[in-house]
Amino acid sequence: MERQHILPIMYDLAVVIGGETSLKPLLDRTLQRLLYYTSFPAGFICLDIPDCSDEVGEMSVRIDAAVGDYDLLGLVGKEVSLPRALLCGSAVREADHPALLAALPSAHAHYKSYLRLPIDGRGVLILLAQQMPETQLPLEQMLQPVMALLSKAILLCRSSDAYAKSLIEARDHAEAQVHQLAFYDPLTGLSNRRLLMDRLKQAFASSARSARHGALLFLDLDNFKTLNDTKGHDIGDLLLIEVAERLKSCVREGYTVARLGGDEFVVVLESLSALAAEAAAQAELVAEKVRDKLNEPYMLKEHIHYTSPSIGIVMFRGHQDSLDNLLKYADSAMYQAKTEGRNAIRFYDPEMQAAIEARADIEDELRQALDKQQFRLHYQIQVDSLGRPLGAEVLLRWEHPVRGLVSPAQFIPLAEDTGLIVPIGLWVLQTACAQLKAWQQDAMTRDLTLAVNVSAGQFRQPDFVAQVQSVLLESGAKPSLLKLELTESMVLKNVEDTITKMREIKLLGVSFSMDDFGTGYSSLQYLKRLPLDQIKIDQSFVRDVTSDPNDAAIVQTIIAMTQALGLNVIAEGVETAAQRDFLDKHGCHAFQGYLFSKPVPLEQFAASLR
Ligand SMILES: Nc1nc2c(ncn2[C@@H]2O[C@H](COP(=O)(O)O[C@H]3[C@@H](O)[C@H](n4cnc5c(=O)[nH]c(N)nc54)O[C@@H]3COP(=O)(O)O)[C@@H](O)[C@H]2O)c(=O)[nH]1
Q: Where is the GGDEF domain (predicted)?
């Protein structure tokens, strides 16, 4: 280093130091530049030296940067024990101190000379050489301002590194959150559908390789909706969280447990036996464990709650079927478990699948039937002992463009399950009332009554009374000519609510008939409290009333009971004159059945009156 070069060198060092924003490159590049300008071959930097007041003995320091010596480079970031006399004190150039430098954990034990430059209270920079490089310059004093600048730069770089670190941490955190949201259910922390599909793909591949079976368990909680509706969604959420925990506890670590949404969960079992029967038994065992675990009571805030799962199982081996199909099969098996009494476990069966798909098709078409005006009402006459018309029961028919006339026995249960019975039932009521109004104009029809079947789902609508009232008002039908038919089973489900609603409707002037009487479990206790007008003897008792003494006795008892309660009685399913005569003789003077007419379209019914 020549005297005339000092200023450009100082300038260059200042540029290097001022140009760095991160600690590691700052230390490395400063060291490199100093070695270059001073002709020392190697050097290192230790920051944050603990206590440098004393120069006796050794101290433990960390090597923060090293250049020019492979052994020293290997020590970067590590703690080493070095003589205090080497590290502490003011800037100094020492030419012959092999003992001090021998303490350096370096293979180059031949270093004898060093230049020590304290970094303004922040640490020390030591340059090493075998022999002191030639120079007339006072390096210690000359480099003092450079070290002061380096000290400040270290401070700045440290805070810049801390900031960069916090940015990286924030980005990592955000990425982790995005990953969590993309693949996990936020409520339970279980895998979501996306991750489930991915895991299933892997399970298929591993099953194909190992020839072992796997199983997919599809679970749905029984009556979860009721809990949500009655206790609120936060309590429902607590149940789902607890169910997720219990599911995880039932399966081996690493098995996939997923929530598809709502109260639907999936468990994937892998590496079951290669023998189909044995694998199915293993899957069933896990399903039973899951069912038992989920049957245990739940403490949801201060509520004790019980629930049960319906579980569908589908087995797989390799890639026999698509993922979507597999899920569909497991879902249909679960559905089967549900319809067979809940808290049950069912394996997938292809025949069952076909039935479910057919049902789904009908459901789609049923949804459109109202809009497409495919419903019709048929009228089945009700007569007295002399065969005079009293009125009719309206019976719904679905005129399907391809299937033909579909029986209500086929579609009413489906309409009830899907809730479609509410709009369909309203249409029946509106059409029947419009007909009553139309009959008002004609002396022959003005006193005829119309009986309309009401389903449980329809009757349980909170605004059912208002619906009846507005249909009557809109149609202008006489309420006394409208008779609503309820069944025993629906009436007895919630007796108090039923009685209240029936009373309100009776106040409108409408009457009630109890359909299918004798097939349910009506107790006399309830029967006498219900504001009924009529009881309809079920056709199953009428069928053999003349040949089966038991049916004859039942029918006589029902008639006697209606007389005791002051109710009307009508018999349905009357097909023969003998049945009619028996009923008439024992006090039942109103009849409905094929003996008089089958249910027929309106025009035919009107014609039969003439
Ligand atoms: N909620 C509603 N339910 C309805 C409505 N329309 C019909 N239904 C219910 O569907 C079930 C099947 O009805 P359907 O096929 O019309 O059968 C009725 C009659 O055709 C049949 N019947 C009448 N007389 C005889 C007879 O002499 N023999 C014989 N074998 N069958 C006969 O009985 C059915 C009448 O049933 P009921 O209602 O119990 O009086 C049926 O449960 C209907 O209730 C609707 O609009 N809404």
A: 212-350
Contact 559, 587 (CB under 8 A): yes
Q: Which of 50-59, 468-477, 527-536 has the highest average model confidence (pLDDT)?
A: 468-477
Contacts with 422 (C-beta within 8 Å, 6 or more apart), sequence order: 457, 458, 461
Nearest atom within ligand 1 for CA of residue 594? 27
Task: Tell me the CA–centroid distance for residue 473 and ligand 1, in Å.
Answer: 27
Cross-sheet strand order for the sheet of 345-347: 256-261, 264-269, 214-221, 309-316, 345-347
The Cα–Cα gap between 472 and 426 comes to: 12
| Residue 161 and residue 23 in contact, taking contact as beta carbons nearer than 8 Å | yes
CB of 455 closer than 8 Å to CB of 490: yes
Q: Per the structure block, which two tokens stand in for 244? A: 């997720």
Query: What is the pTM (predicted TM-score) of this model?
Result: 0.55
Tokens of 505: 């409707």
| SS3 category, 131 | coil
Ligand 1 mean position, distance from CA 525 (Å):
28
How much of the chain exceeds pLDDT 70, in percent?
A: 97
Q: Which residues line ligand 1 (CB under 6 A)?
A: 380, 393, 395-396, 407-409, 412, 425, 428, 453, 455, 515-516, 539, 572-575, 592-594, 599
Structure-block tokens of residue 478 = 């006489």
DSSP E strands in 196-290: the ranges are: 214-221, 256-261, 264-269
Report d(CA 590, CA 430) in Å as an integer: 26
Which of 340, 249, 237, 341 has the alpha carbon at shortest distance from 293? Answer: 249
Window from 288-297, 358-367, 514-523, 561-570 with minimum mean pLDDT: 514-523
